[in-house]
């Protein structure tokens, strides 16, 4: 069923199924492109982070079956899914005592392989009703738009109202208290937005957030990395307090497993653009390399060599080049600002990138644009 459904879902270009290991990077990459390309014109961008209330537990079975059927899944497969969902019962067990059985009339089973796929099918038509950009990864959904003019701000508010209408129709709910707005851009007017409460005419003002967690990455309104680095430093401090002695191999394993993922997860989309931010990220590894006795007196490069760890800057460049390689070799279909060079008049490397012109620092230092404008392309990878 996954093989049948996913190509249909990707036609919208909005939903990323988290059974695909590359999907978080693809989703964040799409959002990063939206932010950086909007900033090319020094535009202000508002991003609304949505929160479904009990998302997986609230999906109504009959409506889900109707949507599955609309994707062309019928006969035996549809009956199998119907039997998988409908007719379930549950009860509570406490110290050997059991409650009465109750019917499960909504929700997709969590912890199953099929559950996330069914939820993605159920919400995948959501972007079709919106005029703003909509990026989704499972139940993590955000809506973003440039808000330079009053009409653009009204469009954003209208889209929020459409979201509530859509949720009422399909019997889902948004938790207005947990939906947050991040205003991005120096000239952002910081418009207030409201969300109509479900099945009511009352409205709740959406809270403005300076920093929001976005698929594991802390995104603030200036697109800085301080919050993400602070998270990595906190984990490194926990390691330092938990071990009286660390040898080289133990530190290398702990750092690569627990700390480094926070510094480079989705760095293709959220690569630092200021030298101070790059130094801040590198300082975490610099601090970690001092935890092994006998290495503190060595130079930083020698410590890394002894620990067999590459620098964070090297890791970022390597990650950028891997993503460019995937794009140029069409290993996955994802929105990208990269433009292939079509000039075949001369012999030479066939995977060249066309240099592009940018007029803002944010756009220039968006990682893939930085590779493109520097002229590195993919030649360094081979």
Q: What is the element layout, followed by pairings?
A:
Elements: H1 2-10, E1 15-16, H2 23-39, E2 45-50, H3 61-70, H4 75-85, E3 89-90, E4 93-94, E5 97-98, E6 102-103, H5 114-123, E7 133-137, E8 140-146, H6 150-169, E9 180-184, E10 194-196, E11 203-205, E12 207-208, E13 211-214, E14 217-220, H7 226-242, H8 248-264, H9 275-288, H10 300-307, H11 312-328, H12 361-364, H13 367-374
Parallel strand pairs: 1-7, 9-12
Antiparallel strand pairs: 2-8, 2-9, 3-6, 4-5, 7-8, 10-11, 13-14
Describe the model.
Helix content is 42%, strand content 13%. With 382 residues, it is α+β, with helices and mostly antiparallel strands. Strands 1-7-8-2-9-12 form a 6-stranded mixed sheet, with helices on both faces. It has a two-stranded antiparallel sheet with strand order 3-6. A hairpin with a 2-residue loop joins strand 13 and strand 14. Helix 3 (61-70) crosses helix 5, helix 7 (226-242) runs antiparallel to helix 8 and helix 7 (226-242) packs parallel to helix 9. It is globular and about 65 Å long. The two termini are 37 Å apart.
